[in-house]
TrEMBL record:
Disordered, as annotated region: 77-106, 202-254
Residue ranges with Low complexity bias: 84-98
Classification lineage: Eukaryota, Sar, Alveolata, Dinophyceae, Gonyaulacales
Top-rank taxon, per record: Eukaryota
Entry-linked InterPro entries: ARM-like (IPR011989), ARM-type_fold (IPR016024)
UniProt name for this protein: Uncharacterized protein
Biased composition (Basic and acidic residues): 219-248
Species whose genome carries this gene: Alexandrium monilatum
Length: 272
């Protein structure tokens, strides 16, 4: 079980909580989220904000999602916000391949999309892609529900506030396009997807989603096994408690002295 003194968390404990976010056990991830949200010095949680946001958007366990969202809310209320990445940093990140080697080299057009202050890169196979085409890709290939509700802020000097979904082309890098949506959870899910799939081809996205689906299935099976063991442990403990109560009750009746009721002429237990 995740064991941290929530009253006096120091830097080492914050690091331990951050490590707990990566656990394969759902209850450890949940407790780690709660620990970070309850940090005495909320600033120590800043290195783990992105992981909290990832869990809040896509963790397979509902309890973990809820704990991560609660922790993010607590930290925001105390002034802890993710650091915004500049366009140069985002473009630089898009140029290099990650350690796992899942991203193929991409020298074609790239978009820079601002979500919640973060500037996130996304590859595109051609110029002139429209917001509607991106939304269709996000909903279909990436699995981001209701992505069509996202609005793309128009460049400065445009006659309208937002790009026309079907007629306007999304500006390419180095221009940064800010995304808006009235439902924050949609943007949160999209930001998580952009960080995971932004520089992957459509085929690579499909392979990565299948890998994650299998991983979630394994975790779900492990959780079911753990729940079954816990249920069986509880059932046996309850049976032992009931047996003890029955034994104690039987001993009380057996050892009670009998007296003769003079009126009814029957034996009754003393005191009853």
């Amino acid at each position: 079980m995740f064991d941290i003194d929530l009253d006096e968390l120091d830097a080492d404990d914050a690091a331990k909580a951050g490590a707990g976010l990566e656990s394969g056990e759902w209850n450890v991830r949940r407790d780690a989220c709660k620990a970070l949200g309850d940090l005495a010095d909320a600033g120590k949680a800043e290195p783990h904000l992105q992981r909290l946001r990832d869990l809040a958007a896509s963790d397979p366990d509902y309890e973990v999602k809820k704990a991560a969202r609660r922790a993010l809310q607590q930290l925001r209320e105390r002034g802890v916000q993710p650091r915004a990445a500049g366009p140069e940093a985002a473009a630089g990140a898009s140029a290099g391949a990650p350690e796992d080697g899942r991203r193929a080299a991409h020298s074609g057009p790239t978009l820079l999309l601002r979500v919640f202050g973060d500037v996130l890169p996304m590859r595109t196979e051609r110029e002139g892609v429209t917001p509607a085409e991106l939304a269709e890709l996000w909903e279909g290939a990436w699995g981001v529900q209701y992505a069509s509700r996202v609005r793309f802020e128009a460049p400065e000097g445009s006659p309208t506030r937002h790009l026309n979904p079907r007629e306007d082309a999304v500006p390419l890098s180095p221009a940064v396009v800010t995304l808006h949506c009235g439902v924050g959870s949609i943007l949160l899910a999209l930001a998580t997807a952009l960080k995971s799939y932004g520089m992957l081809s459509e085929d690579e996205v499909g392979a990565e989603r299948e890998r994650r689906r299998r991983q979630q299935a394994v975790e779900s099976e492990r959780r079911q096994e753990a729940d079954a063991k816990e249920h069986e442990r509880w059932r046996k403990a309850e049976m032992r408690r009931q047996q003890r109560r029955a034994d104690e009750s039987g001993a009380c009746v057996t050892n009670a002295p009998f007296v003769r009721n003079k009126t009814l002429g029957e034996q009754t237990v003393a005191g009853l």
